[in-house]
Amino acid sequence: MRNLINTIKNIFAIEDLRVRIISTIGFLAVYRLGSYIVLPGVDAAHLAAARGGGDTGLVGLINIFAGGAFGRAAIFGLGIMPYISASIVIQLLGIAVPYFQKLQKEGPSGQKKIERITRVLTVFVTAFQAPGYIASQIAPYMGGPITAFFYVRSTLILVAGTIFVMWLGEKITDKGIGNGISLIIMIGIIARLPFAIAAEFGSRISATGGGLIVFLIELVVLVLVVMATILLVQGTRRIPVQFAKRIVGNRQYGGARQFIPLKVNAAGVMPIIFAQAIMFLPLTLAGFSNSAAITGFVGTFSDIGGFWYNLVFGLMIVAFTYFYTAVIINPNQMAEDMKRNGGYVPGIKPGKKTAEYIDLVMSRITLPGSIFLAFIAIMPAIAMKFNVDSQFSRFYGGTSLLILVGVMIDTLQQIESYLLMRHYDGLMKTGRIKGRTSLSGVTA
């Protein structure tokens, strides 16, 4: 306890770090306030009563990401997800379109252009999603027909809300601590956690719930799942690299052995974000159609506890893990950099052979990493099979847990870096916190 108190004192003793933490808390407070401001013309109490309280399926999962704003029909109802979707599109264009490939290689100037294009695309994505959101999640519960003016006004407000949330995320990244987009998603998830725990506790202490022992067992299993998630986020495969020796005068330079840490899950949580964004499409399509076939399709792929949803979701995560890993890891560039600096992998020829070796290692560690990532992502469905409350099951594993663990590790790693730079002890007495790929790596 004394060490914890000393660490907190050290954190707030660094003026720059203290200002950044306070700024981050302030920006996040503004975001949480906006998530409670309902769209004009919508009766929040009537909407909640008409929907029967508590969202299920994919709608409930999206509502978690938005911190409840999605279900409340708030001005931040679509949250930051349109920005994530736009970033995914830009990332895909960076593979297929030469212009975007050129921008990615131009350094900071090219990154600024990509960011501007992403912001513009976010506006179009939000403008496309907003009418579907209004038609499927608001209009059916209004108690009567709604006017075209309501559609236009609400769409403009939702677009403005998403732009403002995007701006808050960028300000947190610049003026605060951690990655702003990631923290906004994380704070929305944490906001729903107390309600989920309370709902699960209430259901377990009921006459047919199994009692307090079952609830405690669930908490123990949750801790084990969290530990497994941390192992997935932090797991690495180290490739030894030997540097050639140079003798200058009476001194020897180089000759040291170092390691290239290749992460088992180099893609972080981006594959889940990719897959989740695509799984959101059925809901958008449903807002524009009354077809029975489309309604049935949407029902099948909106049930997060259903077999087909989880099968497709898991396969997409595996595929996107390979895709995103291939985007961010370039074995040829790594091999060329090692060769240029006089480094080589023992037993492997420099150049092409080294690139092939790195690619082989990445392929071998990505397969189990992607399968484990998919397994954790579908853990909520498995938990619900054991009668775990639908709200609490979403934190039992899946996207919510992966985002919480990953973003917290990144944020703590940044705080520790500030402490070590000012010659304070880190957050851990033994070893250092290792960072991981940012949640919004496409925008970081």
Distinctive features:
3-stranded antiparallel β-sheet, 5 strands, globular, two-stranded antiparallel ribbon, 68% helix, single chain, mainly alpha, 444 residues, Preprotein translocase SecY subunit
Explain what the structure shows.
The chain is mostly helical and about 450 residues long. The protein is about 70% helix and about 5% strand. It has one domain (about 1-420): Orthogonal Bundle (Preprotein translocase SecY subunit), CATH 1.10.3370.10. Strands 4-1-5 form a 3-stranded antiparallel beta sheet. A two-stranded antiparallel sheet has the order 2-3. It is globular.
Quick structural summary:
The chain has helices spanning 2-13, 15-34, 44-50, 57-65, 69-72, 81-96, 98-104, 108-137, 148-175, 180-204, 212-234, 270-279, 281-286, 292-300, 307-328, 331-340, 352-377, 379-385, 390-396, 398-421; strands at 236-243, 245-248, 251-254, 257-263, 343-344. By secondary structure, it is mainly α.
Rounded mean pLDDT score: 79
The CATH class name reads: Mainly Alpha
Number of strands: 5
Task: Give me the number of helical elements.
Answer: 20
Q: Rg from C-alpha positions?
A: 24 Å
The assigned CATH architecture is: Orthogonal Bundle
Distance between the termini: 35 Å
What name does the CATH topology carry?
Preprotein translocase SecY subunit
* Tally of structural domains: 1
Structural category is mainly alpha
Spatial strand sequence of the major β-sheet: 4-1-5
CATH superfamily: SecY subunit domain
Model regions low in confidence, pLDDT < 50 over at least 5 residues: 437-444
For the largest beta-sheet, the strand count, sense and barrel status come to:
3 strands, antiparallel
Oligomer: single chain
Spell the H/E element sequence: HHHHHHHHHHHEEEEHHHHHEHHHH
- Taken as a percent bin, the fraction of beta residues is 5-15%
Name the overall outline: globular
Question: Into which percent range does the helicity of residues fall?
Answer: 55-70%
